[in-house]
Design brief:
transcription; two-stranded antiparallel sheet; DNA-binding transcription factor activity
Length: about 260
């Protein structure tokens, strides 16, 4: 009987963990631009059965992570999600430290300067500064871009420990299908550039009209790798400018940020 009780408790715990994971997946369904999502849309995005989604959205609404719109019959993110995200951002000292350096480079290059962290197979913007004349890019905090074809993603791959890099590249290979040879060639060139210069590029690989350069900051405290980029219109940021001017300035920015963080 005692054994049955232990097994029952373990099964209950596994179910609770599974429910938590599914609930988090539902929250992840909401992307920039998604004001409202219904249970059917959430089911399609997560692959979860609609009855399961209905139970979880009901629970998440009760906890304040989702709100329900009677008018549209759909859900939207609640203030509890904002509170979590804001707390995470507020605790990132690097954002406060980096802002003046980012502003200076963005205005000099007439481009956008941003900080991103890995979010599965994407890079998530946690800070961004756009110059007053920036065209093409309108990405802001919370925006996501793919690791596979962006300078920010490639810089992350270059900075990761070998086991993590191999694992992530395998995930990208599986997902990219026929595009993998082109993606792999882009990464190999990026790795060469990173080893030689300390930064790497994406020259129309993600979006044809966007050129960008990026480098990584690996915190000494062992926390997650941060990647800084400078991106703008391809007709403004030519490769030679990124190689000879903007890239070195970006390296200097990261050095200044690291030194400032070390003093905190």
């Amino acid at each position: 009987m005692a054994t049955d009780g232990v097994e029952s408790g373990e099964e209950s715990e596994r179910q609770s963990v599974r429910a938590l994971a599914r609930g988090l997946e539902i929250l992840r369904c909401f992307r920039p631009g998604d004001r409202f999502l219904g249970n059917q849309e959430i089911s399609q995005r997560t692959g979860l059965p609609k009855p399961t989604v209905s139970r979880l959205t009901y629970t998440l609404t009760g906890l304040g992570y989702l709100n329900y719109s009677e008018k549209y019959g759909k859900y939207y993110l609640g203030t509890s999600v904002l509170a979590l995200g804001y707390t995470m951002l507020a605790n990132m000292d690097v954002r406060k430290v980096a802002r003046p350096f980012m502003r200076e480079l963005a205005e000099y290059a007439q481009a956008s300067v941003s900080i991103g962290v890995q979010d599965r197979m994407n890079m998530l913007y946690v800070e961004a500064y756009r110059s007053s004349s920036t065209v093409t890019l309108t990405l802001d905090v919370g925006s996501q871009i793919p690791i596979a074809t962006t300078s920010m993603g490639r810089a992350l791959l270059c900075a990761l420990p070998e086991p993590e890099r191999v694992e992530l590249l395998e995930q990208i290979r599986v997902r990219s299908g026929e595009q993998w040879p082109k993606i792999e060639a882009g990464f190999l060139q990026a790795r060469k550039d990173y080893e030689e210069r300390g930064f790497c590029f994406s020259l129309g690989d993600w979006k044809k009209d966007v050129h960008a350069v990026a480098t990584a900051l690996v915190p000494a405290d062992g926390s997650r790798t941060l990647v800084f980029n400078c991106a703008g219109a391809a007709f403004q940021l030519r490769r030679h400018m990124l190689e000879d001017d903007i890239g070195p300035r970006l390296l200097n920015l990261v050095t200044n940020v690291q030194e400032a963080l070390d003093r905190i």
